[in-house]
Design brief:
Strands 2-1-3-4 form a four-stranded mixed β-sheet, covered by helices on one side. The chain is built from eight helices and four strands, in the order βαβαββαααααα. Helix 1 packs across helix 6, helix 4 runs antiparallel to helix 5 and helix 4 packs parallel to helix 6. Helix 1 links the parallel strand 1 and strand 2. The protein has two domains: 78 residues, Glutaredoxin (3-Layer(aba) Sandwich), CATH 3.40.30.10; 108 residues, Glutathione S-transferase Yfyf (Class Pi), Chain A, domain 2, CATH 1.20.1050.10. The two termini are 21 Å apart. The protein is of the alpha+beta class.
Length: 201
């Protein structure tokens, strides 16, 4: 297995976390976004979207981080990352879609318009809209985590791993997690795992 990624990409990091939780051998290939390596013809041949991550398993090529996570969880069911029932898999899918559609893009907007873009291209309104969406999602997560260690199951699943990379950047982006005690505790539990320490070292 081979993962093409970039260390600062939350999308690549969530797949990297999943691979570490799976515990099977894999190769990590750096795609330096700062040098435009994602636009090279040889990379576009793998991923025509020109983004990270891209995952290769034998002759099978897959992109989109949540799809890769679902593939790995299904390929290694003994790891328990895909839940243990149809109900849990439905819940996992719900949280993955929420992350892909709302939570992740909210953090991406904040990052772009406070850090990534040149100052003359930053739009404060867009960053504020991202914070508003992030706040809404954090409230939903906070309520859902009451009385639970993990988001869906009695054990960690890909639903938990999906949110960790964005949450890990919260303080850098000025997103205060202190009002969300259940979310903060959840993130702390993820940070204690060897997979997180390996990916974020």
């Amino acid at each position: 297995m081979r993962l093409y990624g970039f260390p600062m990409s939350p999308n690549a990091r969530r797949v990297h976390l999943t691979l570490e939780e799976v515990g099977e051998p894999y190769e990590y290939v750096l795609v330096d976004l700062t040098k435009g390596e994602q636009k090279k013809p040889e990379y576009l041949a793998l991923n025509p979207a020109g983004r990270v991550p891209t995952f290769v398993d034998g002759g099978y090529v897959l992109w989109e981080s949540h799809a890769i996570m679902q593939y790995l969880a299904a390929k290694y069911p003994e790891k328990g990352l895909d839940g243990g029932s149809a109900h849990e898999r439905g819940e996992i899918a719900k949280w993955l879609f929420m992350n892909a559609a709302h939570f992740g893009p909210a953090f991406a907007r904040i990052f772009a318009h406070t850090i990534r873009l040149p100052e003359d291209q930053r739009i404060a309104r867009v960053a504020d809209e991202g914070r508003a969406e992030a706040t809404k999602s954090l409230g939903i997560l906070e309520e859902s985590l009451k009385g639970k260690e993990w988001l869906v199951s009695a054990r960690l699943t890909i639903a938990d791993l999906a949110y960790a990379p964005s949450l890990a950047f919260a303080s850098m982006l000025g997103v205060d997690l202190s009002p969300y005690t259940h979310v903060s505790g959840w993130l702390d539990r993820i940070k204690e795992r060897p997979s997180f320490k390996k990916v974020f070292e």
